[in-house]
Design a protein that fits this description.
GO molecular function: hydrolase activity, acting on carbon-nitrogen (but not peptide) bonds, in linear amides
Pfam families: PIG-L
Number of strands: 8
Order of helices and strands: EEHEHEHEHHEEHHHE
Number of helices: 8
Protein name: LmbE-like protein
Distance between the termini: 26 Å
Keywords: Zinc
Organism: Saccharomonospora azurea NA-128
């Protein structure tokens, strides 16, 4: 059976706290925000951790200015889907490097938030249907996968213990949004308008791309419809679910 024909399974619901780790402002909004809205509406707690401030993402805006604008837009965007905790690691946008510093920062956040579910965006070389993924996404994803293990081992990044961050081995799943290897999905039919509104909060970024709000709505709907074809015909957000 081809990947396109394989039906998606419902995401687990027996958890209370999630941490989403992504490279840039807007990464969660291009596909996963609808699922976040469904989760927070059901009483689950979701926090966002961004490796960068997205300062290299707007061509006609200087990075120092863009960092402030995009941070503000991300906080507003997260609030639309019920996320109150948004943290930025301040690694450099566009040249994010895989390494111990990034792994340590993410592991520290996992110990601090103590999630059962970690959400991230696609770390594979390509997107569903083709098209090359960018380096920052791949790097952030791989570092997140490794940091989940790091967070559970007290003898890795021992300085975190002196900061009062005890090991956390409670992560049960990692959910990869926009993956070409998706296995699970969330019905976002009732949340779709909020998902669109969440992306619309990135006004400066969308303008920099030359996209209108209607372009953003159309893009999200096409993705949700395509995912829903493998999930009962509803509007859906899909994930590759990795069980730990």
């Amino acid at each position: 059976m081809s990947d396109d024909a394989r039906q998606l399974s419902p995401m687990p619901t027996d958890w209370n706290r999630a941490l989403a780790v992504v490279a840039h402002p807007d990464d969660m909004e291009y596909g996963a925000a609808g699922a976040v809205a469904a989760w927070t509406d059901a009483g689950r707690e979701v926090a966002y951790l961004l490796a960068t401030r997205g300062e290299a993402g707007i061509d006609d805006m200087p990075p120092d200015e863009a960092a402030v604008v995009r941070e503000r837009e991300q906080i507003a965007s997260a609030a639309v889907v019920g996320v109150e905790q948004v943290a930025f690691l301040d690694h450099p946008d566009g040249v994010l490097e895989y390494g111990l510093d990034l792994r340590r920062d993410i592991a520290a956040a996992i110990r601090r938030y103590r999630p059962e579910l970690v959400v991230m965006t696609n770390h594979h070389d390509s997107w569903p249907g083709g098209g090359l993924n960018m380096a920052d996404h791949r790097v952030a994803g791989q570092a997140t996968l490794d940091a989940v293990r790091d967070a559970a081992n007290r003898w890795v990044f021992r300085d975190l213990l002196t900061e009062g961050l005890q090991p956390w081995s409670g992560v049960r799943w990692v959910a990869v949004a926009s993956s070409p290897k998706s296995t699970h999905a969330v019905d976002i039919t009732a949340m779709f308008d909020r998902a669109v509104e969440s992306l619309h909060c990135h006004r400066a970024y969308l303008q920099g791309l030359g996209q209108t709000e209607e372009d953003a709505r159309r893009f999200l709907r096409e993705i949700a419809v395509a995912s829903g074809r493998r999930f009962g015909g509803v509007l859906a957000t899909e994930f590759e679910l990795i069980s730990l």
